[in-house]
Amino acid sequence: MPMYDENMIIRDARVLREQFIPGRVLHREGQLDAIRNCLKPMLKGMEPRNMFTFGDPGTGKTCISRFVVEELSAHTVSVQGSYINCWECSSRFKILYSILQDMGLSLSVHRKGTPTDELLGNLKKRLEQRCCVIILDEVDKLEDDRVLYDLATLQGACLILISNSETALHGADPRVRSRLASAECLEFPVYSGGEILDILKDRAEWGLLPGAIKNAQLERIASASNGDSRVAIETLRIVAEEAENQDLRMVHDSSIERALPRAMESSTERNIDMLAPHYRLIIEILESRGKVDAGKLLKEFRKLSTQRGLPDVVDRSFRNYVDRLMQLGLVRAEGGGRWRSYSPEVPGAHSGK
Fold first, then answer.
1. Which has the closest alpha carbon to 284: 333, 165, 275?
2. Is 24 helix (H, G, I), strand (E, B) or coil?
3. For 21-52, how does the pLDDT look when each residue is reduced to its tens digit (9 = 90+)?
4. How many domains does the structure of the chain reveal?
5. Which of 77, 218, 287, 347 is least enclosed, having the fewest CB within 10 Å?
6. CB burial readout 13-36, b (16+ within 10 A) else e
7. Which of 138-147, 222-231, 258-267, 332-341 has the lowest mean pLDDT?
8. CA pseudo-torsion sign 334, 340, 346, 347
9. What is the CATH number of the domain that holds 110?
């Protein structure tokens, strides 16, 4: 940690990152207790309860889940955690491989040429020695929901499934839904402006030097974030780094006004960059064509998918892709039925314009 005379603004840069897991949780006591109660049986060698958490982006789903799993792992050596973002690891093979990596068994597995069933067998053996809480973030991005059935049937594995949508698993295989029917469902509502302000104050207390930012400035950031903690924390990071780079002792109001749209844009670009190929293809078509009716969009999507060697998808999956992009605020729709059309919500974002 830098000394006070070395930095003018930033005390600990790690605290200003969205991925940072704080030492305390604010305004999520109910969800915190619910996750703890589901995992608590593991401390006595008993079977835990799987969980499905949902809510808008920036409502604390990932942070709270990882907080509790780290807390549990610190209390016992018999349980460890594995975090997987299904934007990045969406296939059955990649997910099993990633879990094995987190459990320290990657050296015994060859990434190429190893059958998926062999990975599953290795994981099953490992779980006989040590239990694992597996967090699957953005679970609706899975290419093959069979992996949920695989994991839900393993003794010693507990699942925390995270999604922005309450209906993320409605289209899953009936066997998967049956296995997860008893999962605890936890909703994460949008933060209020006051709650975002408390989160920012906490980050500023630990991440910035005293007096570096005014309470009124934190209130401005909180108000503009629309309940999205990621946007708020990203804005705080941007203004702190700008002030630090300019050798200032305090954040300026003008810096906040410049940072707010950058934080919003960064959030949108990150969502697009993390999209699986089929999602990016839809964005690409809409950005190049503008407004496209539903039938033409599907036709162009299938044509380009074939040209690029992407797996075929059924109509229902295509509709799910478009619906998900709309939920993310990346695509907007007009009309209904045969007259329904789509257009990009943020033109040029994918191309970096």
1. 275
2. coil
3. 999 999 999 999 999 999 999 999 999 999 99
4. 3
5. 77
6. bebbebebeeeebbbbeebbebbe
7. 258-267
8. negative
9. 3.40.50.300
